[in-house]
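User: Fold this, then the next.

Assistant: Folding the first:
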Amino acid sequence: MNTPTALIIIDMQKGMQSPALPPRNNPDAENNIARLHAAWREAGQPVVSVRHISRSPSSVFAPGQDGVEFQDRFLPLAHEHVVEKNVPDAFINTGLERWLHARGIRHLVIAGVSTNNSVEASARTAGNLGFETVVVADACFTFDKRDFGGTLRSAKEVHLMALANLDGEYATVRTTAELLRELPR
């Protein structure tokens, strides 16, 4: 990776650690995100931290709730860009696209939660806007979910389907190890 490549970390907030959430997949996702986070900083590549700010006052992501805060290990540094969103897509009404264009950034690496919601929505938009986008399969996770027919799907199934929706169409799906091998030191 010789061109500026932004690492976009989506919704790694304290609310995502709630025991009330459904079962999830990929218990190593946070460690992989942390590895990418550290490597991007070491390489001097841009890091963008995205957090969801809910419009619902009862949400754990509502302003003033502890759940809206970034998890301690993913706190942005003062010079790193923070995006606050109210919908799953990190590009909608946030200025993220303009921020990236102003810095000549055309390559994105997306990690975070949840694979089938905010990660997928943001990656679809990034791809549609012409960004070269990578979604890091083992640095994302999601939760068990019922499909439209009412069948409960495991988090692993939901995760894999979301990645399949993205790969080759809106983004390329890669692993943490692959990206770390290519990152200049």
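Now the next one, as you asked:
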Amino acid sequence: MNPELLFTQALGLTSPWAVDDIDFDPKAQRIDFRVSCEAKQLPCPGCGRSDQPIHDRKPRTWRHLDFFQFAAYVHAEVPRVRCGGCKKTTQVEVPWARPGSRFTLLFEAFALTLAKAMPVSTTARQLRTDDRALWRVLDHHVTQAQAREDYSTVTTIGVDETACRRGHHYITLVHDLAERRLIFATPGRDAQTLKGFSEDLASHQGKADQIRHASIDMSKAYISGLGQHLPNAEITFDRFHIIQLANQAVDAVRKSEVRHDARLKRTKWAWLTDMARWSKKQDEAVYDLTRSNLKTARAWRIKEALRDIFQAKPGREQAEGLLKRWHSWARRCRLEPMKRLAATIKRHWAGVLQGFESGLSNGYVEAMNSLIQAAKARARGYGTASHFIAICFLIAGKLKHLPANPFQTPLQRMVAS
């Protein structure tokens, strides 16, 4: 088999396209494939009218996947068709690249695969190309793939915020909790973000009134947004967020008391960590303190009692009785941070109890946020919110219409999906 025919098949080309020349330059560390179109007539790319004459040919170059350690490029003089029907002169599309791109489809698919696991700047260095060009590839494919998603079956969502850049720059993330996938992301964290979600849902075959359950933190903005734009959604206040508020209250008591009691120095994380996960050092340092009359110890016992209620997972009716007794204890404890915590839970009573009925939490959402923030840390931040959102969808969106990894077998793709 001659090399031109071999690489014609390797590139997946069919008539009238074929490799007609190969230029290998080991000193320049590159290999160039020259592809020609043998046809004299082609269908019009605009209106589809068949057998239209070729008007002229324009030279184009695309970066391809490396050939061993050598950078590979595809060159072609791309025909433009002069159509007698629509009277337009239009350039035909080549089978190995999308219109307007300077990379082949296989190169772009591999770049997307790498970008899931490493910063785009690192991916660009590995592929020996420009990171700005890769961002254009990533933004294009993620936007196109997300636009094709079907959200007609979404009924249960988790809403949370995550930091986009330093300072007060946040985006709101909405996840489908049943399918465990990110379905919406937008800059901001106010009530209008959920208006944007309801509109985006409609563009993906969904309806705002089909959302029956929503797990959120106690953000006033999200509560208001759900009431205005997703009126059928029963609100569950995420139990992890409630325990986080309880931890903050305990730490506030500790900070006030540590100034007067040296025993509390270097014990912060033990008071905030589940006792079952204490290290041996934490256990030795703190266990006796938990049984003392320290204010911090009293606050910790109140917090642990609340944690025990959530971990027991009682039914709604039983949970209400347990929470009433807990609330009475916390309200009368004479520790201002714990009293404020009790008041906060009382103000959000219905949503807290709904969690025992729905069983929902934002545990999965928080796990995805951790992955997203880890990616941001590796990249040392992203220049724009749109870039950050693209990475969020790449990591957590489970997008079905992204180009497949060219090095995966069909079985591996099936398992990955």
